[in-house]
Write a structure and sequence with these properties.
single chain; iron; two-stranded antiparallel ribbon; Ferritin; about 65% helix; 11 helices; mainly alpha; about 0% strand; respiratory chain; 2 strands
Length: about 350
């Protein structure tokens, strides 16, 4: 009797509509049934589980192929990357990461703005008194233009040589970038090589920028000085861009005279340090690594190497102007790449 009642109850529960019998497979596949829903859900979970397993397995295998094996090392690298992301730094991007770089003493290389192979020992065998005497009309225009530009600078900064140098470097880094950019576009447009002058001028711009990074460490600029930099750079960039388009020989001659003024300014800076008017503080770490200065280097050592760089920029730009004044193009004369 009990078996009969139980059988009737089960058949009623699994009946369809008018009491028709459904097989187990039909019951599970029926969309409206609870068991069918649960079965579909379980199948979906199993599908995505195995799919994710297959994808992760494939990714690990591809990493093994690219990296030559070692999933454990990859996982450690991922843990390190995740830890760096939590700290707010990211060392790699899609598998591209910075290699471990050391100083000669074994400590980690701290700079991202330049690498050890960009550092060098400055050539101090320069003539700080060298001056290109203006001969032609454009030479005189360039010379007078630079002298006029110096007047407001001297009025604003007077004997504050650190701030004066900072402002000077924000301007001095512009010509190399403008000249290199325009020569680059010319080379693309005319299908011509540049004789190395693109690289030489961009090297000059980068070197001047490193001067600025050093001076900022020594002189913390005030807000109004930063505002003045924005205004001066905006005016000078557009003005020099126009001059270089119209007359590259005038542009390079102007830069040559600007660098002459820079050499003069840094010489005056050194006199103030020697007289004790300016404290000869320790050199910033960035300067010691960039110019390969000794650990006991001072502000005087930094100013000496910067002045040497400016003297080389002076000579190179006067040389470039001379090439143009001879009716030639820069690409016809080998560029002094790596001159600083």
């Amino acid at each position: 009797m009990k078996r009969f009642v139980a059988g009737s109850l089960v058949s009623g529960l699994i009946s369809c509509g008018g009491g028709g019998y459904m097989s187990a497979a039909e019951m599970m596949a029926r969309p409206g049934s609870m068991q069918g829903v649960m079965m579909n859900k379980q199948q979906s979970q199993q599908y995505y589980y195995w799919r994710s397993r297959m994808m992760s397995s494939g990714a690990e295998k591809s990493k093994e192929v690219v990296n030559g094996g070692g999933v454990g090392a990859i996982k450690e690298e991922e843990k390190k990357k995740n830890g760096d992301e939590e700290k707010g730094t990211v060392d790699s991007y899609w598998g591209l990461s910075r290699p471990s770089i050391k100083r000669p003493d074994g400590t980690d290389w701290p700079w991202n703005c330049f690498m050890p192979w960009d550092s060098y020992e400055a050539d101090l065998s320069i003539d700080v008194t060298k001056h290109y005497v203006p001969k032609k009309f454009l030479d005189k225009v360039a010379y007078r233009t630079v002298k006029l530009l110096r007047i407001p600078s001297d009025m604003i900064f007077k004997r504050r040589y650190g701030c004066h140098a900072m402002m000077l470097e924000t301007v001095a880094a512009v010509p190399g970038m403008v000249g290199g950019m325009l020569l680059h576009l010319r080379s693309l447009r005319k299908f011509q090589q540049s004789g190395g002058w693109i690289k030489a001028l961009l090297e000059e711009a980068e070197n001047e920028r490193m001067h600025l990074m050093t001076m900022v460490e020594l002189v913390q600029p005030k807000w109004y000085e930063r505002l003045l930099v924005l205004a001066v750079q905006g005016v000078f960039f557009n003005g020099f861009f126009g001059v270089y388009l119209l007359s590259p020989k005038l542009a390079h001659r102007i830069v040559g005279y600007l660098e002459e003024e820079a050499v003069y300014s840094y010489t005056e800076y050194l006199k103030e340090i020697d007289s004790g008017a300016i404290e000869n503080v320790p050199a910033p770490a960035i300067a010691m690594d960039y110019w390969k200065l000794p650990k006991d280097a001072t502000l005087k050592d930094v100013i000496i190497v910067i002045r040497a760089d400016e003297a080389h920029h002076r000579d190179v730009n006067h040389f470039a102007a001379d090439i143009h004044f001879q009716g030639k193009e820069l690409r016809e004369a080998p560029a002094p790449v790596g001159y600083h």
